[in-house]
Every structure is written in structure tokens, then in C-alpha cells.
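Example record

The entry below shows one chain as it appears in the dataset: sequence first, then C-alpha cells.
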Amino acid sequence: MLDKAFAGLRVLDFTTTIAGPYCTRLLADMGAEVIKIESPEGDMLRARPPLRNGASSYYGQLNAGKKSVVLDLKSPRAAAAIDALVARSDILVENFRPGVMRRLGFDYTELAPRVPRLVYCAISGYGQTGPSAQLPAYAPVVHAASGYDLAHLRYQEGRSRPDYCGLFVADVAAGTQAFAAIATALVQRHATGRGQFIDVSMFETMLGFALTEMQYAQFDVPPPGRPIYGPLACADGYLMVAVASEKTFQGFAHAAGRADWITDPRFELYVDRRANWGALMDEAEAWSRRETRAHCQARFDAHGVPCSPYRTVAEAMADPQVAHRGAFTEVADAGGSFRSLNPPFRMSAADTASGPHCAALGEHTEEVLRAAGLAADDVAALAAGRAGG
């Protein structure tokens, strides 16, 4: 059986909703003991559907493999418990608005002198300091603020109203950046013996997605034209086709039975091809609209052209490639079980599968506080009161 890469590390997790829990779920997947500190009401995602017997699989996929401890952070008795837990921890992750942890007495400046090996990661909308630091931020707001939404809209011909979007890219991306930064800090700690403070900005994370747009924005040049990929209409739906290189363009031409495109002055050179992409797609669809998606995909596959039919998430989950890679873990909770995605990477000498259990609210309060060395009376009071005593 493979080892877990972060086995033996302990994480104190003050995060809620998505960005922070996504980060700490990855830490748990790597084998760290993640102790999730929840208010007596619990993380707000515990109430989000889909619910089965009161258990949210939405919450579960972000928090599988963690321990749940309920504490009222404003209580003096709970504060003493946090001190004991921090002293035994390697990593602390929080995603409160900047300043909250300082008011509670658990900011990095307060904790670092007592636990110099502590790697402390704070995830926020705009960073811990600066004119925007105190602005409230959820992923859709950050998408708009970073330019991401309008950059995306510019590629949607004939549209001027920004999209509605229920996919929280900023949360998942910032959580991933936080995970990478923590892993980096652990490597540095191995050399120096000291932890450090990590400040992750969702805003800057999203700005990093606009790679092309950031460069065009700096110079007085026309913005990039239509990208050389997009939906190709077939008789029964659409294929996404990406013609990003000379080799794939030539394969695209041969697949469509139009080798003449390769020497057509409108399409032969990359700059001309991009300028005339609409005309190229019109000619391609004169062929593809007569054929099924399966036929067109087979032709593109045979000529090495990257393409895919547009699929639902359910269809993607049923892809044989998913089963081949063991992409999902079965997670048990109070509602039964559900499938949760493992990290998208595999390691030859480490197990990367997600934990198989999602804890009920406060399930590990007594166990964790006893292990931290709290007096029996304090443990009993905290566990019984659920609000800190």
C-alpha cells in the first residue's frame, strides 16, 4: 500500500464555504490530519443541496477526510482550546475577511512567536492589505472584478450582457493555489526550520487566467481576434474543435476533405487564418452539418485534431477514462454515500485518494480536545455546550 505524502502533518482548518475547504481537502487527501473548526451552526454548506437524510454531498465533497470540532471562537474556554491545538499543528488555514483572526487573537503575528514552525495560510478576496482588502468577495464578484467575465464575453459574438455563472472558478483556483503555496512553504521549512505567512488573493488568481488579455492590455494594439477554436455544427449537435498548430490545421483540412485550405492564401498563414477564421468555419460546416458528431469526431481523431462533443457533467462522469483512472472515491456520510472526485494527479510513490468519510458536525470534538491535552472538565464543558462554555 502506498504512503500518504503528508502523513504526520496536522492542519488546523478555520475555513468555510469553498476556497478554503477545497485547499484543506487536498491536504487531507495527501494524508494530513485536518481538524476543521466549525461554529455551533456549522459550515453554511452543510445546509446546501443535494441533501440526503440531512447530509449535504456538496459539503461532503469539499470536506471528506477531515475531523470536525465545534467551538465558539469568541469563548475564553474555546480560545484556550485553540491555543492547545495550534501548539500541536504544522499548518493553519483560514479564509475569513482580513482582520477577523487578529480580533480573535489567532493571527499569524500572535501565533508565530509561540509556534515558529507554523505555516499559516490566509485566503481572501483581494489579499490581506490594500484599498480593497476589506471588500466582501464571493467568486462571481471576483470574476467580474478581475476582468475575467468581460474577457470571456468578448469572444461571444453578438452578445453584450455578461453571463450568469454558477461555476465558482475563483474558489477552486484559489484553493489550489493555496495548496501549492503551503506545499512550497513546507519544503522551505524543511531547510530553515521555520514556517511563514501565506497571503492568497482570489482576485490575483483570476487575473492570472487572462494570459493573452493582460499582454494586449499593456500596449496600444488591437485586441486579439476570434480564437482558432470553437463549436463546429454537425447534423446532431456541436463539436469543440481546437486548431492551435500548423499540424492540427493540416489535419483539420484533411479530415474535412479540403486539403486546398492548406495553400489557400486566406488560411495558409496563422495570422491570416485567424483573421479569416469565420470564413474557414463556414466552409467547414458546409461539410460537418451533413455528418453526425460521431462521424466528424472519428475523422478528426484519425487526423490528430483535438476535439470533443459538448457533454453534460453526468456524461463526463460516465466516461470510461474516468473509471480507468479511478477518478472517484465513494464517500460515506449520514445520508449514505456519494461519489467524490479524487485529486486530478496520481503519484508513483504516494496515495492521493480522498478520505472515505465525511464527519458529522462536531463528531470529533471530544477526541481531538482530549488528544490536545485539555482538562477533562474543559473537554466535557466544550463538548456538551457546543458553544464554548
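Notes for this example: The domain at 229-314 is CATH 3.30.1540.10 (formyl-coa transferase, domain 3). The first strand starts at residue 10 and ends at 13.
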